[in-house]
Design goal:
4-stranded antiparallel sheet, 124 residues, mainly beta
């Protein structure tokens, strides 16, 4: 049974940090991505990692502030979020797939497996 379990969300003041975790089980994934969705907005790609490599992708809005990384031994991917802004507030989801979508990593439709989401709230 495929499972993606996120954790680490919470409430923080602007300028603060949070680290999200996504633990994947039940299949041999090749890529993991983080998405976020604020109320009334579309789900948008935040970052992605081609597992077992150094290749990562980031949305322009988070470049330089967020870092995606992995612990292969724990089948866990992390999203370290620093210098958080109120506009980063959203439900954050991790997604995994058996492929790495080089040119379309930020397209939600590319991913077959999703976690349940974890809420991030950043206050001004």
């Amino acid at each position: 049974q495929v499972q993606l379990v996120e954790s680490g969300g919470g409430s923080v003041q602007a300028g603060g940090s949070l680290r999200l975790s996504c633990t994947v089980s039940g299949f041999a994934y090749v890529s993991v991505a983080w998405f976020r969705q604020a109320p009334g907005s579309e789900r948008e790609g935040v970052a992605a990692i081609f597992t077992g490599t150094v290749h990562t992708n980031y949305a322009a809005a988070v470049t330089g502030r967020f870092t995606i990384s992995e612990d292969r031994g724990r089948n866990t991917v992390y999203l370290q979020m620093n210098s958080l802004k109120p506009e980063d507030s959203a439900m954050y989801y991790c997604a995994a797939d058996r492929s790495f979508w080089w040119g379309s990593w930020a397209s939600p439709g590319r991913y077959n497996y999703w976690g349940q989401g974890t809420q991030v709230t950043v206050s001004a």
